Amino acid sequence: MSMVRASYRPHVVVVGGGFGGLALVRKLARADVDITLIDRHTYNTFQPLLYQVATASLNPGDITWFLRAVRAKQDNIRFLKGTVVSMDHEAKSVLLDGNITVTYDYLVLANGVTANYFGVPGAEEFAMPLYRRSQALALRDLIFANLENAAVNGQDQDLRVVVVGGGATGVETAGALAEMRNLDMPTTYPELDSKRIHISLVEMGEHVLAPFHPKLREYAKKELIKRGIDLRLKTAVKEVRRDGVLIENDGNQEFLSAGIVVWASGVAAHGVVKDWGLPQGRGGRIEVDEHQQVRGKPGVFAIGDISVNPDSPLPQLGQPAIQGGKHVAKVIKARVSGKDLPKPFKYFDKGTMATIGRAAAIAEVRGLPRLKGFPAWFIWVTVHVALLLGNRNRFATMTNLTLKYLLWRSHNAIVGETPYVIAHEPKIVSGSDIETVTPKKSARSARKSISKKAQVRKAVAQQTIDEIDEPRD
Fold first, then answer.
1. Which residues of the chain have pLDDT under 70?
2. 122 with 245: CB under 8 angstroms?
3. Which helix (H) or strand (E) holds 236?
4. What is the Cα–Cα distance from 148 to 188, expressed in whole angstroms?
5. How far apart, in whole angstroms, are the C-alpha atoms of residue 178 and residue 225?
6. 64 near 44, Cβ under 8 Å?
7. Compositional bias (Basic residues) spans (predicted)?
8. C-alpha span between 234 and 232 (Å, rounded)
9. Residue 256: which of 365, 126, 145 has the closest Cα?
10. 300 and 250: one domain?
11. What's the pLDDT at 105?
12. Which pLDDT score, from 0 to 100, does residue 450 have?
């Protein structure tokens, strides 16, 4: 068994290299501690832009950052790739997969959350969440696989993508898919009838983007409808099937046939957290006190989406994670140096925003009036680019978003591999159409093809004879 031991300095172990984990690590850059950052991936993912990867507007590398690069400006940290299996809080150790034990003096859990399916039958099996890079890539490739198949085999039935959840992720994903259909596909997929491609957004509540002011919510609703999105409010998903979703509105059930179901409705702690011997609250989140310390576990902290203070719950956004990470860093530095603890953590709400599409967004930013339309969209783009890690990522993302949203002449999509398309029936591709071949026509085409081959052979043979009969010099 491998053992990673603390050195003579206090050993801070941070599980999760997201917003909160990196904020804490960087705040401890000059502290008299050794830090081990653990993550199951070797990269940080900027989750707010995952939907841009899923809709082929950004490269996955644009929104990911190599976690080992944190050592470029900080030498008291090392990175360890692994997944937490269990914890022993009396021995102050964490067991990772691969039989690696990491000992700690201070443990900070910043490992984030996953999709919450709320017990809906079939949701976990057939719906596609958007919380990891691999999930965004899987969704992107499935979208284009369906489009390529329809381009060859025709649209014998309507194509539909159902997005479940009217929060920021759901609205932004539905808006991006609608703009792809409305603005790109007439050029890139002329074989398809865009009127037979549907984007449905299903929300159980009465509004989309419920945390926002009513006027901003109404604006978002109108913009979604303007883009041709089939908006289903006050509608619950009762079941997800391989070929669509069963929904219910006002006691009436309806089945929406769909090739893709995107799940953007709620989050919950990973199932393994229940085995860590920690108090859990709503959604399986770890309960913490006013200093983000896990209740009843001295020296163990939780920050970001995985944590909840029952007395003062915070929104599950990037800023609470970042601010929480910085606060815990202050607490650890105070304990290491023997100084007084800082004041209890207080979240400073800088505001929130969401985009519906090009030049359409809503924003509630501290110090500014409520914004909508282009001004809100411009702020949204600026803030999201600024929050990316690394100048290379910022430059690449800014370039791609500029080409996508400001220069409409570009219909280039950032795509991956899709399966070979197999025609359901024999096809003939002419200069302007793809025509299904009937059995009789197929036979005639075969005879015609044979006849043409025979004519070619005859011509070649005749040419050979003529060459033989020519007088030689």
1. 1-7, 407-410, 432-473
2. no
3. strand 236-241
4. 11
5. 10
6. yes
7. 441-456
8. 7
9. 126
10. no
11. 96
12. 45
Cβ neighbours of residue 229 closer than 8 Å, sequence gap 6 or more: 174, 175, 178, 199, 200, 201
Phi/psi region, residue 284 (left: phi>0; alpha: psi -120 to 50; beta: rest), is: left
CB neighbour list of residue 329: distance below 8 Å, 6 or more residues apart: 23, 24, 27, 28, 31
**Amino acid letter at 238?**
K
Please choose, from the candidates 16, 266, 242, 17, the residue with its C-alpha nearest in 3D space to the C-alpha of residue 130: 266
pLDDT score recorded for residue 444: 53
CA distance 159 to 155: 8
**Dist CA 288 CA 308 (whole Å):** 6
To which residue do tokens 């509105």 refer? 249
Please name the residues in contact with 464: beta carbons below 8 A apart, sequence gap of 6 or more.
Answer: none
**pLDDT averaged over every residue in the chain:** 88
Q: Which of 245, 242, 240, 169 is nearest to 200 (CA)?
A: 245
Phi/psi at 77 (5° precision): -130, 150
Per DSSP, the three-state class of 136 is helix
Dihedrals phi, psi of 265, to nearest 5 degrees: -120, 90
> CA 323 to CA 383: how far, in whole Å?
16
Q: Note the pTM of the prediction, 2 decimals.
A: 0.86
Q: Are residues 252 and 319 in the same domain?
A: no
Find the domain containing 26 and state its range: 11-115+268-337
Same domain for 199 and 106: no
Question: Which string of b and e fits 251-279 if b means at least 16 CB within 10 Å?
Answer: eeeeebebbbbbbbbbbbbeeebeebebe
Q: What is the CA radius of gyration of the chain?
A: 28
Q: List Cα–Cα distances, 147 to 50, 155, 172, 192, 282, in angstroms.
A: 21, 10, 21, 8, 40
pLDDT tens, residue by residue, 232-244? 999 999 999 999 9
What is the reported pLDDT for 355? 95
CATH code (residue 237): 3.50.50.100
- Between CA 72 and CA 81 the distance in angstroms is 18
Active site residues: 172
Separation of alpha carbons 3 and 104, rounded Å: 11
Q: Using CA atoms, how far apart are residues 453 and 140, in angstroms rounded to an integer?
A: 43
Contact 235, 88 (CB under 8 A): no
Residue 464's pLDDT is what?
Answer: 46
Cα separation of 71 and 78, whole Å?
Answer: 7
Place of tokens 């002449």: 409
Same domain (yes/no): 177, 307: no
Alpha helices in 127-213 (DSSP H): 133-153, 168-179, 185-188
Q: Which two three-digit tokens encode residue 448?
A: 């015609």
C-alpha 294/C-alpha 202 separation (Å) is 36
Whether 362 contacts 379, CB under 8 Å: no
pLDDT at 441: 52
End residue of a domain, out of 290, 306, 337? 337
